[in-house]
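Catalogue entry: protein

Sequence with per-residue tokens
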Amino acid sequence: MINRDRLATLRAQEDARFLALHPKSGEMFKAGQVNMPGGVPMSWMAKWPGAYPVFVKEAKGARFSDVDGNTYIDFCLGDTGSMTGHSPDATVAAIREQVGKGITAMLPTQDAAIVSGELAKRFGLPLWQFTVSATDANRHVIRYSRMITGRSKIVVIDRCYHGSVDETFATLDSLGNTVAREGNIGAPVALDQTTRVVEFNDIAGMEKALAHGDVAAILMEPAMTNVGIVLPQAGYLEAVQELAKKYGTILIIDETHTISVGPGGMTADRGLKPDFLTIGKAIAGGIPTGTFGMTHKIADDIKRMVELEIIDTGGIGGTLAGNALSLASMRATLSEVLTQKNFDHMIALGTRWSDGVDAAIKEFDLPWTCNRLGARGEYMFGKSAPVTGADANNAGDFELEQYIHLRMLNDGFLITPFHNMALMCPDTSEADVDAHTEAFRAMCAELVQ
């Protein structure tokens, strides 16, 4: 048990250290408050610990530096957007070349065929469309699923996250009813009208939700990541896949974060056969993009049901979708950066990072656990690994989490702000991981004094 009075004392020390280390960031934050709510360009940036966010000067590979001259080993990596490492050379070269030839024209480029072919090879789905983000991809496939099936409901996993998709901001109340998740802003309709929520790893619950006969699609990550890493139990994913077929429901797999296990994500790793697959973030090296793959059957259904005359007014699209710059970025990133060789390196370091965390947890007899997902590792404040999203959520400790993030930031390490997840990139080194292990151990030693 962590002594809360000592935790408050340690937090006060880190707050003071943060101010001493980041005066120029403080000045920029103050200037930003004039024209930005909270002084940040997006509201969630206010969640970083400390008096204000650190302002970045430049980033390259596994490191970034701030405006005060501090350098950090980056284990956040843009919450996967920079899983390639910041500004990988091959991607930067492709971007520079394409910028000189045109950024967007509402017409395809040769890269579109190259990228879609590479995605088909990796994930096993033959046909692909491109968006501006994974959020857009998820929105689009939900619309298509409703159109194809003629059904209204979507099943999502409790405590999931799939971007700012209205249907996904739902949770279960104490009676097992679908309700709006806390903090849900401006929901257009009550969530039980659009959504059924099922716990992860609950096969019986999934079948009960589908048995109503009104579920168009299941949208899920093959392993949960945005509430903390929650791994599928043996046979769970395969059972969900079979239930989807049994009840005529479309299965959508979101691999945006779970690509950390390898070039084809968990879909390739587990031999999954979804109807749709969505992904964004890392596949363009940090350039905003998203994409969704589909089976031939899905594509045939869409073609049969969507009239060409009104193909642009059905809620599927986006003027910048499939733009030349994002496609050039994807082509370079997929072919030269997110390679099997680099994944082997990243996954080995993910294991090394988690081993170091586990060693400190054991040494100081902390009631925590560390989960692994390929190039990712994450410690959680519970004695055993979570089985459901509710387990992961209940293992949260915001006060402790904020302290640890601030302490590690002051020590020169950035981890994902919304939980305690670390990600390796091709430029991460064993020395980077070992430096974190040493700092994490020192922090644990102080916590238990």
Q: What stands out?
A: The first strand starts at residue 56 and ends at 60. The chain is about 40% helix and 15% strand. The longest helix spans residues 340-363. The CA atoms of residues 382 and 394 lie 8 Å apart.
